[in-house]
Amino acid sequence: MVSISNVSKTFGSNPILRGISMDIEKGDVVVVLGPSGSGKTTLLRCISFLEHADEGELEIGGKTYNLRTANKRQMLEVRKQIAFVFQNHNLFQNKTALENVTEGLIIGRKMSKKDAEIKALEALSEVGLKGRSLSFTAVRRTAIACGDCKSSCFST
Ligand SMILES: Nc1ncnc2c1ncn2[C@@H]1O[C@H](COP(=O)(O)OP(=O)(O)OP(=O)(O)O)[C@@H](O)[C@H]1O
Ligand SMILES: [Mg+2]
User: Fold this and answer.
1) What residues have a C-beta under 5 A from ligand 2, the ion?
2) S-S: 49 plus which of 22, 75, 105, 115, CB 3.0-4.6 Å?
3) Helix (H) or strand (E) holding 63
4) pTM, full prediction
5) How far, in Å, is the centroid of ligand 2 from the Cα of 45?
6) What is the pLDDT of residues 34-85, one digit of tens each?
7) C-beta 34 within 6 A of ligand 1
């Protein structure tokens, strides 16, 4: 279960998130809907510590983290359980789909190249791609495969 409680964030004098809470059960697929600028991305950035929340808590993997005061070790613990598919994908255009997916597993997760490739090929198969150069239409599916290699995935 992933639980978000009372997340607030103000940019300057502009309150964007005001006490946002939600519970996500294992296996749930949840959509956060709202007009452009309403704070959807800001919420996802706050729960993965890409943005510093003014207050709020995140429960994930059986532990609770304070989004304002978490230390670096706690941030890393959380980030290892969260995958992001960014609006602009953030993929390496000069690498194949396979290399894009294995990069994070080898560098971030310290996985061997061989194990990373096995895991990446499984994820790429699920989205109908296998280790080929990135075409425009392959980009989004590759980004999703990167997310599939982690346990929780958020698409912004
Ligand atoms: N670093 C920042 N500094 C100042 N204001 C910011 C910052 N990041 C986001 N904002 C503002 O916060 C508000 C929410 O932005 P956010 O990107 O979270 O919206 P969104 O709901 O994801 O929009 P979209 O549907 O267009 O993706 C916007 O008014 C945006 O300008
Ligand atoms: Mg957004």
Assistant:
1) 40-41
2) 75
3) strand 63-66
4) 0.76
5) 10
6) 988 999 999 999 999 999 999 999 999 999 999 999 999 999 999 888 887 7
7) yes
